[in-house]
Amino acid sequence: MTRPPICPLCDRPIPPGSRQSLHHLTPKLRGGKGGPTVLLHQICHDAIHARLTETDLARDFASIEALRAHPGLAKFLAWVARRPPGFHSRTPGPRRRR
User: Fold this and answer.
1) Is residue 81 within 8 Å of 7, Cβ to Cβ?
2) Contact between 9 and 68 (Cβ < 8 Å)
3) Domain of 60?
4) pLDDT tens sequence across 33-79
């Protein structure tokens, strides 16, 4: 039996059938089209885009290490680490502008 992939942001497994998505480390609109992507839980991906603009992502947060170091995301990651791997809830607040 194969192991489920691990979300590189929160380090929890991504179970089959759970909400997930690919995140472009450099946003497509900021030169990242065709660039590296990572598979994340949908809730982790939503948390990134709720806190950071596309410009912020391209300029300062184009790696998993940089994303983990962001104070707002670090707080979210500490919270979500206590949830089961397939957990999903709506991310509060509007999605940031591009």
Assistant:
1) no
2) yes
3) 20-80
4) 888 999 999 999 999 999 999 999 999 999 999 999 999 999 999 99
* Residue 85: inside a domain: no
Q: Would you say residue 37 lies in a domain?
A: yes
**Interacting residues of 79 by C-beta distance below 8 A, sequence separation 6+:** none
What residues form DSSP beta bridges with 37? Answer: 24
Does some domain include residue 97?
Answer: no
Q: Is the pTM of this model over 0.85?
A: yes
The torsion angles phi and psi of 56, rounded to 5 degrees, stand at: -60, -45
**End-to-end CA distance of the chain, in Å?**
41
The answer as to whether 9 is a domain residue is no
